[in-house]
Design goal:
- The chain has 228 residues and is an alpha/beta fold.
- Helix content is 29%, strand content 21%.
- It contains eight helices and nine strands.
- The strands form three sheets. It has a four-stranded antiparallel sheet, covered by helices on one side. A three-stranded parallel sheet has the order 4-3-5, sandwiched between helices. A two-stranded antiparallel sheet has the order 2-6.
- β8 and β9 form a beta hairpin.
- The two termini are 33 Å apart.
- 29% of the residues are buried.
- The model has no long low-confidence stretch (mean pLDDT 92).
Amino acid sequence: MRFRSKRYKADFGKQPQEAQELPQAIKTVKGYSKTKFDQSVDMVCHLGIDANQADQMLRGSFSFPKGIGKQKKVIAFVQEGDIPACTEAGAAEAGADELVDRVAGGWMDFDVAIAHPSMMGKVGKLGRVLGPTGKMPSPKSGTVTPNVAQAVKEFAAGKVEFRNDKGGNVHVVVGRMSFADDDLKENIEAFIDHLKRLKPAAAKGTYIKRVCLSGTMTPSVTVAVSAQ
């Protein structure tokens, strides 16, 4: 705690020791000390999966019903004829060889990269630079798709990618502190329901072990969830 701010330490003293029902957990997180900026509300779901087993890994993308309060900068790797549709859909940059070369040269000023399947032969060489940042297009995350323009529109509006880490945790932003409680609740419940539908057949025992909410600069609150 010695490296934490005074505000965080004060909030830490208010942190509930027991899990709270979702509506109260939201109120608790939003009730921590205010900041000058609109903090994101983050959720971590600790899952009963073996992250070392390929058939138990989770990866995908999800559009929250109430959005997440932030637009993303999206680029698209497409053939020349598809460039106009992608830029109209909201792509910051769209192109083929020139865009591949630009990214290969170190340009990384974007949040999400989307690619048409026909471009993956060229985009594949970017794995070395995009892989470590989590920006490499992938069919599993919905960023390699024949309908690039639609994907650009969805991701630019806030559609998020997610994947479990080595500890079996899935981290996502579920909204902002400025969101209405009911909107945060709807987003959180929708994502948890989505995770339940993705439960790997090989996963045994309790699936959703723990769910925690926090703000960008606040302690976490454990949410009471039904055993799955």
